[in-house]
Each structure stands twice: as C-alpha cells, then as structure tokens.
Amino acid sequence: MSELYQTVRDIGEQGLLKKLQSFCPRDIIGDDGAILSVDPAQKLVVTTDVLVDGVHFSDRTTPPATVGWRAAAANLSDLAAMGANPIGITVGLALPGEVPVNWVETLYQGLNDCLQCYDTPIVGGDICRSPTITVSITAFGTVLPHRIIRRSSAQPGHAIVVTGTHGGSRGGLELLLNPQLGDHLTITEQQALIETHQRPQPRLDVLPHLWEIVGTTEVAGMDSSDGLGDAVVQICRMSGVGAKIERSQISLPPSLLALVSPEQALQWGLYGGEDFELVLCLPFDLAKTLVERLGNGANIIGEITTEPRVILIDSNGKYSQQELSLTQGFQHFTSVSDISHDLD
Amino acid sequence: MSELYQTVRDIGEQGLLKKLQSFCPRDIIGDDGAILSVDPAQKLVVTTDVLVDGVHFSDRTTPPATVGWRAAAANLSDLAAMGANPIGITVGLALPGEVPVNWVETLYQGLNDCLQCYDTPIVGGDICRSPTITVSITAFGTVLPHRIIRRSSAQPGHAIVVTGTHGGSRGGLELLLNPQLGDHLTITEQQALIETHQRPQPRLDVLPHLWEIVGTTEVAGMDSSDGLGDAVVQICRMSGVGAKIERSQISLPPSLLALVSPEQALQWGLYGGEDFELVLCLPFDLAKTLVERLGNGANIIGEITTEPRVILIDSNGKYSQQELSLTQGFQHFTSVSDISHDLD
C-alpha cells in the first residue's frame, strides 16, 4: 500500500508512536512519563485544554496543521495569562483507526511549528482509539512566585490593558465558512483575517516587557481566549470589583472593519473569542508605558471600578450604556452556531 | 426539574465547573492554570492517559465511579513506574450534553476516592462538549534524580521482580461480561476478581521499601498496565537485553485459578493487562529481600539475559519453550474483543 494512504489502523499504535517520536526530544522517549527540571526558585504552572472534532475544529475551516498550531497556542496563551514561561507540553490523542497517518503527522507538525517559536518541546503523550478525534494538551510552565498573574487581584482605579486587537479570529472563521463575504476585500486583508484565526500568537512576548515595566507591582489578568468581554467579567467577578470599558478604545483589526460593519466588528471583538491576547490590570502610569512599548493595537480599554458591574460606555454619547454579563461569553454546551447571534 | 435528572446541557459549562470545584483544593480554582510547588532537589515527572467510552470503559462493566478510580490509578501507576510520588493531576473531560450531571459527579468521586489514598489533589482541568465521553488525565510527580526508574537500564544477571499477582483484572472483566462463568465461585472469589478490575491499586506503596532496600543501586522497570509480557518485552527492547521467565513463578490470584484453567489464567497473567503492578530489575540479593518484604504474590519471575530474546521457560519440562513478542501485547488499534484470543 502506498504510504500516502496509510491509516492509523494500518500501522497500529506502535507504528504511529514511532512516527511521532521524531517530534519529541530523544532523551525523554520510551518511559511511562517525561522527566523535567524545574528551576528551584520558580513555581510550576499547569494548564490543560481539550479540543474536539466538530466542536473546536472541523475539516472545513481547520486543516490538521491548524488544529495543532491552535491547540499549542491556546495552551501557551494560558501560561502567558499567568505570567509563566513554557517548559513543555504533553499531547493526548484519541482518534478513529481510519484517520490517515498523514493527518496525525501534520497535526504534530502544526503543534511543533507553534511550539518551536517558544522553544517548547512535546515531552510525552498518549494515543488511543476513539470514534471522535480529540486532542488533549497539558502545558507546563514556570513563574517566579511574585510574578504570578491572577484573575482575583484586580484593584479599583487600575487601568485595563489589552495587548492587541480583538475580533480578527472570529472574522477569519466567518470568512472560511462563507468565502463570498470577502469578495470586496483585498487578498492581503483576507489572508490577515484567516491567519489571525488559524495561527494565533500566544502573547508570551509581552512578559519580558511587562516585568521590566512593573518591577514588583502585582498584575491581575487573564487571556481573552473566551472573548474579551468574558475576560473582563471573569476578572471582575474573581476580584469582587467592576469595570468601565470605553467602546472606542477596543482595537479592531482594519481587515475586520473592511469585512463587516463597525457594530458587528465590535460584537466580535467583545464576544468572538480565540484572539489569545492578554487582558491585564495595573496602575495607569505603568499601563501607558506598556501600551506604548507593545504597539500593534495594544490599548487601555477602561478602568477597574469599586461597584461590581461591568459597563460598556460610549464617551461620544452615540450608544446607550450597556452592561455585560457572563452569559454573553462562550459556553461550551450551547451550539457553536448560536454564539455570534447573542447580541446581534 | 428534579436535580436527579439534570443533564450537563441543563446546567452548562459554568454550572458543571461549579459542582466539580468541590473536588479541588480551593486556593487553585479560577485561574487559567494551577500553581504547584516542586521540591528543589527533585525532578518533575509528567504522564498522561486518555480513556474513551466504548474503548477503555463501557456502561456494562464500568460505572462512572470505577471509570474515575481506574483513570486515577492508571496515572498514579505510571508515576510509581518511574519511582515518582504524585503531587497532583489535571482532568480534561469531553462529553455529550445529555450525560447526567450525576454521572460526572460520580466520576469525580471515583477519581477522588483513589487520589485521596495517595494525598493527591485534582489541580485543574477542562470541560467541553463531544459526541464521545473522553477522560484525559495528566499526572505530575516528583522523584530524586538518582531514583528515577527507567525502562532502558536493565542489566544482564539482574532478577526480574513483579510486585503482585497478574491476570486478576482480566478475570474480573470476563466475570462482568459473562457473570454465569462465575456460578461455581464463592461470592468472595467473585468480589475479589471484580475488585481487582474495578479498583486497581497503583503500587506507590512499593517505593519506600524499594529505596530502603536498594540504597543507591539503580533500578530498571515499568508498570504492567499493558500486560506483564508486554512490560518484560518493552524493558528488554529499551535496554538491549533479553529475559528468561519461569512460567511457574508468575503469581496468579487464587480466585482466577478458581474461574479458569491454569493455562488460561497464565495467558491472562501474561497478556491481560491492567494489573498495575511494577516489574523491576535489580540484583538478585536485593530482589529477594524486596519480595520477602512485599509478600502478597510479589515474586522473582526470571532473569535478565544478554541475548536479546524474551523466553518463557518451564523448569518442569511440561511445556515447550516459548518466545514472547511485542505483538502479543495490548494494541489500541486492534479490536478489544480480539485481545484475549491472541494466544488461545
């Protein structure tokens, strides 16, 4: 049989493991677990994510290399969200025997392409049979104890910084699902949106700038993987505070504004999810320095308040004041097709 | 609606997370990842396992508490196999919305029941929608560098120790699938086999005895989760050595010998899998002391040899010599129903 058409069942678990070992450092293969060193001064941070075929990805919008890249990016983003630098990931893979071996290799290639940008090895995993392709990633990182970024420590009067634009991932998804929507866009604009969806960048690059600017000041925050609105609400809920967000300060990618109306773009910016930016709360003076340093759409979008409500304001008076609630964020047990219609 | 009949879809991701938080230590909930301390002198060991409905468990033989117990036990056994003590696990759960909330809570109860025996917390996880129930566990442990048990360091002349009986888990599974097979067994014998299948004990208890007995001598080994035969073959392959195993020295549980013929019991002992004992290679004098200390079926089953073949011998001359190959072990992409027939 041609190697091109081999399925996982054709080569079996051992055959597949052998092929995937080329993606892992040699010295850690072959035992029941991986062995990692943790810098004695640092805390270990662990985060885990499960991605399911037909729920988090589909053949229509997500080739296997993209599934891999996004899975790696989502987990590295969770580490960045806590201020941690990655030291390794494990991959648990459940899949039907009829999946082509090439699909699995391309998935691993996608994982590795993303991980290599951040010097992070795949340190182990598990492969098993399942009717549904499921990719479970657990990522490990380390952080100095005083640098841990928590959701629960946001303080009234602090600025809310976002590290980049929002809504692009949701726009890219829409374009993949309905390519004709992009007929009036340039190829560059189309590619920019699709790239934002398929190859998101975990914002580990923000951390060295952040530490340099804030010194020993504690920073609160999380990532915006479930939506910018959701992140602000979660931070406020965990910190027992509220927030005032200025609509016009939310950076939206130009390519998204070329695709849809400003109002639709803002909705996707707030609730689209999977932009993998950081949402950080820190004193205004430090926030301003950080935003200038980062550029590329980084901005102060509002302020933490004492009153425990999250309010979307419009300083131009064009829109009425609006209150955000958690139910507008992404909920895994609702249908994916419902998500964008919550606030239409 | 009565709480008894609530499904996961009824209460949503946030509702389910809230219920499951009672199983996790309070101080680590609510962030993108868990924060753990690693003793500076120790190495971090990470292991991961994916369990799939219909492949690793089924409603017929595995109530949710058992799925949870076995998932925790399998991962703690992987840590024990490397000489590591557990410090925490993460749980990635993918499941259909129609699964009863009670099923998920009972799964977590089963996980926790096993974990509590070893002071190990659930430190985080992920929940998402999927057509197939999938439980992905990643476990973390620590080990002093000189105590790491590897598959690749077995030495010719060393004894092969198993820490307990084999075949009981396979016998228990058979009894659950075909209860009438046990009609001639006492209730105690039936319960013993089913308990062996449903609530296996990871052999973390072996480690303190092992360290006391071996001092600084390196120990090779792994666990027998994929079968005792498979473990010996894997160790030999990774170490570039062979082994001679004496059939009569493989301890089989009395309840299994009451259920099936001695020959069938031995086949299940060698290839049944999921007994979660340790298979350790160490000098004969230390091996004898360890076996005496452990009791309960622990035994020296053979010797590591220079010639790279694994041979099953019979010192009574009753059976002809037999060579083991890896293909007789558990392969996830073959049908489960085929497994026990490989050598029938």
Give the SSE layout:
The structure is a homodimer of 344-residue chains.
Chain A: H1 8-20, E1 34-36, E2 43-52, H2 64-81, E3 85-95, H3 101-116, E4 122-129, E5 134-143, E6 159-162, H4 168-177, H5 187-198, H6 206-214, E7 220-223, H7 228-239, E8 242-246, H8 254-259, H9 262-271, E9 278-282, H10 284-294, E10 299-305, E11 310-313, E12 322-323
Parallel strand pairs in A: 3-4, 8-11
Antiparallel strand pairs in A: 2-5, 3-5, 6-9, 6-10, 7-9, 8-10, 11-12
List keywords for this structure.
homodimer; 344 residues; alpha+beta; 60s Ribosomal Protein L30, Chain: A; 2 domains; seven-stranded mixed β-sheet; four-stranded mixed β-sheet; 10 helices
Mean pLDDT of chain A: 89
Largest sheet of chain A: 7 strands, mixed
Please compute the radius of gyration of chain A using only Cα atoms.
21 Å
Per DSSP, what share of the residues of chain A sits in E-state strands of 2 or more residues? 15-25%
Structure description:
The structure is a homodimer of 344-residue chains. By secondary structure, the first copy, chain A, is of the alpha+beta class. Chain A has two domains: 3-146, 2-Layer Sandwich (60s Ribosomal Protein L30, Chain: A); 149-341, Alpha-Beta Complex (Phosphoribosyl-aminoimidazole Synthetase, Chain A, domain 2), CATH 3.90.650. In chain A, 34% of the residues lie in helices and 21% in strands. Chain A has helices at 8-20, 64-81, 101-116, 168-177, 187-198, 206-214, 228-239, 254-259, 262-271, 284-294; strands at residues 34-36, 43-52, 85-95, 122-129, 134-143, 159-162, 220-223, 242-246, 278-282, 299-305, 310-313, 322-323. Chains A and B meet through helix 1, strand 1, strand 2, helix 2 and strand 3 of A and helix 1, strand 1, strand 2, helix 2 and strand 3 of B. Strand 1 (34-36) of chain A pairs antiparallel with strand 2 (43-52) of chain B. Chains A, B: It holds the Pfam family AIRS. Chains A, B: Pathway: Cofactor biosynthesis; thiamine diphosphate biosynthesis; thiamine diphosphate from thiamine phosphate: step 1/1. Chains A, B: Catalyzes the ATP-dependent phosphorylation of thiamine-monophosphate (TMP) to form thiamine-pyrophosphate (TPP), the active form of vitamin B1.
